[in-house]
Amino acid sequence: MYPGGFLAYSTCSLEMEENQEVAERFKKAHPEFEAVPLTLPPFVTEVEAGEHGLLVYPTADRDGGFLALLRRRL
Questions:
Q1: What are the backbone angles phi and psi of residue 72, rounded to the nearest 5°?
Q2: What is the tens place of the pLDDT at every residue in 33-72?
Q3: Hey, what's the torsion of the CAs at 29, 17, 10, 58, to 10 degrees?
Q4: Residue 24, pLDDT above cutoff 80
Q5: How far apart are CA 69 and CA 48, in angstroms?
Q6: 18-52: string of b/e by CB count within 10 Å (b at 16+)?
Q7: The model's pTM
Q8: Residue 46: in which H helix or E strand, if any?
């Protein structure tokens, strides 16, 4: 295993148990990882940033989903 590094977790779901709860359980089981705060450009609307990742709501132009980025502490 390489020191440091990133882990991305993404789904096309809006369900908390498939998104935020999975990221939260992973962080509890692997305390060497921390969430990386994510932001999107201002023109990307209908986004909810939380402690465990970004929830992107569906619009007429896109599907919804979830994205979490975790960084392994050195």
A1: -80, 125
A2: 999 999 889 888 899 999 999 999 999 999 999 999 999 9
A3: -160
A4: yes
A5: 15
A6: ebbebbbebbeeeeebebeeeeeeeeeeeeeebeb
A7: 0.87
A8: none
Nearest to 37 by CA among 67, 63, 74, 3: 67
pLDDT of residue 74: 80
CB neighbour class for 70 (10 Å; exposed up to 12, middle 13-18, buried from 19): buried
Alpha carbon 38 to chain centroid, angstroms:
8
CA gyration radius for the chain?
A: 13
Let me know: does 34 contact 18? Beta carbons within 8 Å: no
